[in-house]
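Data card: per-record layout.
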Amino acid sequence: MLPLHPRSQLHTITDGHVITVQIPYCHTPSEDMGDETSPMLLQSKLRDLLDRRRTNSTLRNLTLPVLDQTDFSSNDFLSLSTSPELKSSYLQELQRTSLPLGSGGSRLLDGNSIYAEQLEQEIACFHGAESGLLFNSGFDANAGFFASVPQPGDVIVYDELVHASVHDGMRLSRAAKVVAFEHNSVSALKQVLLGLLTEQDGVREGRCNVFVALESIYSMDGDVCPLKQMVEVVEEVLGHERGYIVMDEAHSTGVLGPEGRGLVCELGLEKRIFARLHTFGKALAANGGKLFLSTSEAQYKC
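The structure for this 302-residue chain is written out next.
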């Protein structure tokens, strides 16, 4: 086994998960001769990147919680992750069901279950949605939606502060164009939509659709989307048949709306929003995500 360089850990963060890559350090005769050029080009580049991050104070490292510390950074908004009642209920549910610990495969093959489908329908009903689809995480749900639902010729318009998962999905999308607008600006959104009617023949002629990506509460700034006004602008400019709002409710789940149903339910806009994303890994102290869609859209996503 190759020894590790003293500065040989590369940390990357994706959707809250830290991935550490160990970079092997190869000691070569050339180094004994004073030659500092490493023949292992990849490892050399990665070490240079680590050094650059260290110099710029952008190198991330794992930390451990400290006893009696005050939490200002996690997404455990309701402190459910430390709830004895929730833990007890979860363990009782595991004992009550006869489900295996693992699915044994993807849901498309042999990993589906009546329990999963009933859970999907129960959560959808709670949020006033027709149906929905469970995902491994909210990140996967966002990325999967924008990668597969917009079709060739369609346009995606997005708030400039939407989550990285939306950007990942847009990069994989078949949409003809993606356009950002100024954060939380209703007038900027309207200007972009009017511009599309002028510039995009497919949109103007009704052959192509426009998806508008928004968040209920923006994770970095903590401000709330002026959703009602934005819905009115989309319907005014594009109508119900061409403009589709996709709402990321990750940070409003459990916080806004009746019984934590989110901003869309708080404003009574369930029938006017095309798709909604709720996550379980924040306020709900669990894992996974749910995308609310119509029945046909959920079948397409499967």
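Known properties of this structure: Confidence is low (pLDDT under 50) at residues 1-21, 23-35. The first strand starts at residue 4 and ends at 14.

See the next section for split statistics.
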